[in-house]
Design a protein that fits this description.
It is a single chain. By secondary structure, the protein is an alpha+beta fold. The protein folds into four domains: 8-244, P-loop containing nucleotide triphosphate hydrolases (Rossmann fold), CATH 3.40.50; 257-335, Translation factors (Elongation Factor Tu (Ef-tu), domain 3, Beta Barrel); 342-449, Elongation Factor Tu (Ef-tu), domain 3; 462-643, Rossmann fold. Helices cover 29% and strands 28% of the residues. Helix 13 crosses helix 19 (628-643) and helix 15 runs parallel beside helix 16 (557-567). 39% of the residues are buried.
Length: 644
């Protein structure tokens, strides 16, 4: 069968005449395509509202299907379809086997099509709550959102969540597609009630326009041609709206050029490669490395196809400069006369994407443009009730929560607010161990304290204090279950080090909780904050030239890794006291295990709360297999070289 864009098979199956397209030559068609602008839009909404069916219908109506695709669709419709002998248009978009078997959308599916006036890239996004992250991915590049509502169901929680996320992602043009009107008898009152309810809900979301359209994606009502079933509706068809909606251009007078890599094919060439995110750059322009402030002029703009005199937003290029400067992946270039800002503390809206809770004080990796750093949640200002948009107090983030939070990074990052720059205002948080994306964030503004607080230079340095003490400052971090012997070993090691003339101090879990951390309990969130404070104190004491010994359960790997990074791997020795749980429980010097087993003590590490053993500790000890003296001797031998 010839691979031509026809609808003969679909016409026979559905029984609806195909719209006519004026004949044109191939050359004229290509020229027309090149002159058309591009509109990116998404379909979103709750599960089973007909998003995939709508896109499939649009592809069919716009003559984007070839004969072999239609033949395959007919076969797939018989195998997986839900429409009896008719074509199931959703199968044109749902390409994963799991999607076809379950009849749901899981991943984002992008499709390209064109009409006589415009080119389109549409993202079909999933409606299930567990795949909200995929919906956000599709919305991140869209200009318009088509929010579907099942006419029989009305506005659901996921409908409201998607509307709120669309607003967060900066989309200002929204189509409220009230779908499945055929199953609601094309009732004008139902359409009116849903339209009014959404307009009231969306009032604070800042949409510039909301166009409500009654549809039947399956039957084609009001898709490309006005339906005879809705004589009471006087607005545009969906395709008519998409062809005429005006999307403001995103022009910028400044240059934002995140460096992706240093291009050095040989000793005679060094260039900085990346994609122009905003603005433009010309040969001869003076550019600035935002982090270091170094400047240079652009000598050449190099591409695979040759040299350019100018590069604009969206161009992937390599900039060769007129002199060598220190710049690499993660740096952001700007025009010297339009410098960019940096911050290490900011407020952002987070959308939490995993079931594991997000906790204040926990450290994650942050990726903003091409920049990477460590970041921690320093506060949760409020959570958004997705049904009422009310602000609620919260101490942690759960799956699909939308919260306004404050964050701090370990180094300043180039940034902007998300409304001003999607490139410099959007970021992701990544789990350090699983490398899963745990959240996406949109920066609201920098915190004032980021500019008001500056490090004070001190005349006496850590090296001066270490020289006076006669040894280096270090942190020996003992971790293990309650009853494993951490405090006993730390105390015995301090006695041995003190006898050698070493200046030491023990930070013990129970002792610290009687003062500095007396306000903290034993929930996961409190444990995270407990270890964060201890790590900060241990770092200060190490800076004083002391050998700091900590004896804490410190049950979570992420917090121990945070402590290691804060203190410095070269200064941090992790000692895993690996005494088995059965031995610890048999000792039970404080009676904690007995209370935990009887249900009187929740959040007991190793019983009702997890303990995550170190993956690669520098030293491992088992107090049930070796005496205290033997363990201390092993510790001293292992630490001698580190303390010189």
């Amino acid at each position: 069968m010839a691979r031509t864009a026809r609808k003969s098979l679909a016409d026979a199956t559905i029984g609806q005449a195909a719209p006519q397209i004026k004949p044109t030559t191939a050359a004229a068609f290509l020229q027309q395509q090149q002159q058309q602008d591009l509109l990116r839009f998404i379909t979103c909404g709750s599960v089973d509202d007909g998003k995939s069916t709508l896109i499939g219908r649009l592809l069919w109506e716009s003559h984007q299907l070839f004969d072999d695709q239609l033949a395959a669709l007919k076969t797939e419709s018989r195998k997986y379809g839900t429409q009896g002998d008719n074509l199931d248009f959703a199968l044109l978009v749902d390409g994963l086997a799991a999607e076809r078997e379950q009849g749901i959308t899981i991943d984002v599916a992008y499709r390209f099509f064109a009409s006589a006036r415009r080119k389109y890239i549409v993202a079909d996004t999933p409606g299930h709550e567990q795949y909200t992250r995929n919906m956000v991915t599709g919305a991140s590049t869209a200009d318009v959102a088509v929010l579907l509502v099942d006419a029989r169901q009305g506005l659901l929680t996921q409908t409201r969540r998607h509307a709120y996320l669309v607003s967060l992602m900066g989309i200002r043009q929204v189509v409220l597609a009230v779908n499945k009107m055929d199953l609601a008898g094309f009732d004008a009152d139902i359409f009116g009630r849903i339209s009014e309810a959404f307009a009231q809900f969306a009032q604070p979301l800042g949409f510039e326009s909301i166009s409500a359209i009654p549809l039947s994606a399956l039957q084609g009502d009001n898709i490309t041609q006005r339906s005879a079933h809705t004589p009471w509706y006087g607005g545009p068809t969906l395709m008519g709206y998409l062809e005429t909606v005006q999307v403001p251009s995103r022009s910028s007078s400044r240059l934002v050029f995140p460096v992706q890599w240093v291009n050095r094919p040989d000793a005679s060439f060094r260039g900085l490669s990346g994609t122009v995110a905003e603005g433009g750059v010309n040969v001869g322009d003076e550019i600035r490395v935002t982090g270091s402030g170094q400047t240079a002029r652009v000598a050449e703009i190099v591409t695979f196809d040759g040299l350019l005199a100018q590069a604009v937003a969206g161009d992937a290029v390599t900039l060769r400069l007129n002199k060598e400067i220190d710049a690499s992946r993660g740096d952001v270039l700007s025009l010297s006369q339009h410098p960019l800002e940096m911050t290490d503390q900011f407020e952002a809206t987070l959308v939490w994407m995993i079931e594991e809770a997000g906790l204040i004080g926990r450290s994650y990796s942050i990726k903003l443009a091409t920049q990477w750093a460590s970041a921690s949640l320093t506060g949760i200002k409020h959570k958004v009730d997705i049904n009422t948009l009310a602000h609620e107090a919260s101490t942690q983030l759960g799956l699909n929560d939308i919260c306004v939070c404050t964050l701090a990074t370990t180094k300043p990052l180039v940034f902007d607010s998300y409304p001003n720059s999607k490139t410099l205002g959007a970021f992701i948080l990544v789990d350090r161990f699983s490398h899963a994306t745990v959240a996406i964030g949109m920066i609201r503004h920098s915190l004032r304290r980021a500019q008001n607080v500056h490090r004070q230079a001190l005349s006496i340095t850590r090296q001066d204090r270490e020289q006076l003490n006669g040894h280096k400052g270090k942190v020996i971090w003992l971790t293990g279950l309650s009853g494993s012997g951490k405090s006993t070993l730390a105390n015995a090691l301090e006695v041995a080090l003190h006898a050698q003339g070493r200046r030491t101090y023990i930070l013990d879990g129970d002792n610290v909780r009687q003062g500095l951390n007396k306000d903290l309990g034993f929930t996961d969130a409190d444990r995270v904050e407990n270890i964060r404070r201890i790590a900060e104190v241990a770092k200060l004491m190490m800076d004083a030239g002391l050998i700091v010994l900590t004896a804490f359960i410190s049950p979570f790997r992420q917090e121990r890794e945070m402590a290691r990074e804060l203190i410095g791997p070269e200064n941090f020795t992790e000692v895993y006291v690996s005494t088995p749980l059965a031995v610890c429980e048999q000792r039970d010097a404080k009676g904690l295990y007995k209370k935990a087993r009887s249900g009187q003590l929740p959040n007991m590490s190793g019983i009702s709360s997890p303990y995550e053993p170190p993956l690669a500790p520098q030293i491992t000890l088992n107090s049930s297999a070796a005496s205290v003296a033997e363990s201390v001797s092993l510790l001293q031998r292992s630490l001698n070289d580190r303390l010189k």
